[in-house]
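step 4 of 6: structure.
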Amino acid sequence: MSATRTLVHLLSVAMLLLWGGVLLYFHITGRLVNYLPPDGIFRPMVLVSGIGLVVLGLFNLLTMTAEDAECEGHDHAHDHDHKDCGHDHKNHAHPHKDGCCGHDHGHEHKHEHGTCDHDHHHHEGCGHDHGHHEHKHEHGACEHDHHHHEGCGHDHGHSHSHEGHAHGILEESSWPGRIAVLLILAAPLSWAALSTPDRYSPNAVVNKGLYDPNYADTSRADQFSLQNKAAKASAKPDTATAKVATQPATMPPPGVAAASAAVADGTKKVNEKDIPKPAQESKSYGSFTLEDLKAQVPQSKEGNFILEVPELYYTGGDLEVQKVLTGQMVETIAQVLPEKVNNTEGHRLRIFRMLVQCCAADARPYSVPVDFGKKAPEFKEMTWVKVVGKMNYKKEGEQTVPIIEATNVIETTAPDNAMIY
Amino acid sequence: MHFLAAALPEPSRFGDFLMAFLSIIFEGAPYILIGTIFSGIIDAFLPAKLLDRVLPRSKVLSTLIAGFLGLVFPVCECAVVPVIRRLVQKGLPLSCAVTYMLSAPIMNPIVAISTLTAFKEFQGLSWATAGNATMTIARLSLGYLVAVIVGLVVLRFKPGQVLRASIANKIEAANAEEGHGHAHGANFNGKLVHAMRSSMRDFLDTAMYFAIGVIITSAFNTQVNQAILNTVAGKEWLALPSIMGLAMVLSLCSTSDAFIAAPMAAFSMAAKLAFLVFGPMMDIKLLFMYSSVFQRKVVVYLLVGLFVLVGVLATPWMSLIQSLYIKP
């Protein structure tokens, strides 16, 4: 193996270890919770592939001098190519494979084949480096003498070029190209791993649509709209509401609840996405009563309904729930940013939670305005707050906007999962 | 988490970019690893000429079959380019290779599962109502159709007219070599070493293009106000081209793009279908990768052809598949 190839091989291994290491680091430190949802396959996949990359890297490191079954891209000066078979070499005092590895044949064999008395065994594979030969092959029971494996052993005089095998960019490039490839592989990943804040700035939240809410949206309504909650309870282990919703059928009004649950379970849940629903359809999920609300939503000891912002958000598309929720006291924890919609008097703030579908890159803010009825208090952007207030709904623009008329807003600590999955 | 938060940098515009970048890497890298382990194993263990023996003599028929090869060798589009290079060497005709290249990132079990999951089509899925997995069926079938159409067009050309000269020569050289029947003799260990080396190279190749794509995507994702999408999404004639343009820019992996498409509430199902079929066949990172195999003008034809084909077919195809829907 030439020095260049050795170096490229080692750099390749280093890249694998870097990628694997970053995956494992974020998984082990638990910081992965800020990037991928807890349910589903993504987080375990990071662990498995992190281990896989490290193993692949180490395997290639340890087998660096081993023979490769097929040879690629050698710059051999031989008139024939020893692909996988042992053949009678004419040019060399001893036979060896011109492996994949474009080696400089220095021929200073110092084989120390333990108990084996073979003579330059042809390893089907290719690519030893006959430059420095510290063979560590463990030839179990080897007593062969130029053993020709599996019937190949031809003397070929043709010279073929094995360029057909796909080479890595690293192998094929010249050094400037290699350095560029290495930079692209290593620099952004290392930089991101070292200096990611694990959370978004207000800028990203705004770009992801903070001020463009569509309260009649149904895209994830099945997961968060109040009427479907009983059926969805198990899907949201980290939110307070799920605790209550695990006892769905226990509450009284069976007729009504069953009817709405049937609607929820059947048509809406199964194929919510298949058939685009006209906007007005989202406004009628069936009947909903205060009992349903109490059954589905936990209450604080003051009697406030504890709801997540996405749940409040989706009530904007559900007339029945709005009727029940209007005037009720609600409580929620969210982050705060200034309100820029319908806020000429400065009475409002906007609170939001980021909702993630499959990774933090697709996080979307779900937000509702908080109205103070007077000059809104000042909070540092992105502060976590606990908001208590009375629910109200106003037709603003073309939407029905869920508004919390605040009675009490205090700074609080961030919840364990900053994002909702 | 709380104790770590103190040590973390303050959020910033650039931090947003890093955060999005990392999260997509975390999401995609595992699948790239799977794909490249596969391609390494194919390279080392799939006997040369096996495909040639297995595929029917009729090239049209074998192209039709090649469209389903993704079910056997599932790869996403990042890994498919090195894989088809290998498969061409293992005796796969060019039309089949192109069809496989275009369809495999869509017509494959991992993508089917991720699409089912993203569009919540798993719930209530049974054989009786299998037709209700509308998006998954529409995506796989349209992907297959488009890939076969392109493959049949390629059938009319010689490899030398389509492939880069260097690649076309390599195929001839390889074909000449096949006659010698090499690659039979290797033992398992040697093959394993070879497979793992190929996997390493493929992973790094793929990861590099992936990283470039993710950089562009993350920048768009966090630095550009997404509200511009909503303005075009409403108009159907504008929605299709713009969502395909988005697929191009985002350069998502086909194993996870469904998760991005599903929550795009503003777009119609047909537009999402176009996104999910066009994206795996053509995007910015693929443009680079295809250029390493095909002649540049062929890549341009491919870009335009796929854009028109998917754009024209998406809407009627979605209507057709939606008509299969059975009320549960």
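step 5 of 6: annotate
 - Residues 188-223 of chain B form the longest helix (36 residues).
 - Chain B is about 70% helix and 0% strand.
step 6 of 6: archive
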